[in-house]
Amino acid sequence: MPKGKTGLFTSHRLTNIGLAEQIVVLEYRRIIERGTQEELLAANGRYAEFFRYQ
């Protein structure tokens, strides 16, 4: 991504999401978690649950 630009992508494949600088987890149109992949896995929340499932 060029400096000063923001890109947005959605994916159900968590292997692709791990490349992102920031991950936002939505549930029922609400942000429930936000952080890097390492932070979200350490928090052991919904993202970590999905990650373990995949």
Describe, in plain words, how this protein is organized in 3D.
With 54 residues, this protein is α+β, with helices and mostly antiparallel strands. It has three helices and two strands. A two-stranded antiparallel ribbon has the order 1-2. Helix 2 (37-43) packs across helix 3 (46-53). The radius of gyration is 11 Å and the shape is globular. The model has no long low-confidence stretch (mean pLDDT 88).
Care to give the gist of this entry?
This protein has 54 residues and is of the alpha+beta class. The protein contains 3 helices and 2 strands, in the order αββαα.
| Straight-line N-to-C gap | 27 Å
| Cα shape | globular
- Low-pLDDT stretches are none
Outline the biggest β-sheet. 2 strands, antiparallel
**Mean pLDDT across all residues, rounded?**
88
Helix content: 25-40%
- Helical/strand content category: alpha+beta
How many strand units?
Answer: 2
Please state the CA-atom Rg, rounded to the nearest Å: 11 Å
Percent of sequence in beta strands: 15-25%
Q: What is the string of SSEs from the N terminus onward?
A: HEEHH
Oligomer: single chain
The strand order across the widest sheet is 1-2
Number of helices: 3
